[in-house]
Amino acid sequence: MGIQKCENCGYQFSWKEIQKAIRWTYKPLVCENCGTVHVITKRTSFIFSIFSGVVGFTLAMNYLPILVGIGVMLIILLLAIILFPYVAKYEIDNSH
Question: InterPro entries from the entry (predicted)?
């Protein structure tokens, strides 16, 4: 597990670059060294969608006090944001 490198030139993407690419949607990640465009893999997108759904469903079905549930959700969200760049996988965009 580690932050991905460019598949073309080996440039090490930074945690911040990947965070910017995933803020609201999965934007393409462009290598600053060679300009190669990378897109998030369908597998990574699927895994995080399932993870989000399972966490949300589990918390909704749990009989926790509302403030505890909100606190747990915020902690899980924060952990997901922090860890995402280490587990996200990108591939070269061949659609162009």
Answer: CxxC_20_CxxC
Say which residues have a Cβ less than 8 Å from residue 14's Cβ, sequence separation at least 6.
3
Under DSSP, the state recorded for 23 is S
Go through 1-13 and write b for each residue having 16 or more CB atoms within 10 A of its CB, e for each that does not. eeebebeeeebeb
Q: What is the pLDDT of residues 55-82, one digit of tens each?
A: 777 766 667 677 777 787 788 878 888 8
* Dist. CA 23–CA 27, nearest whole Å: 8
Closest CA to 37 of 16, 19, 21: 21
Instruction: Tally the residues of the chain.
Output: 96
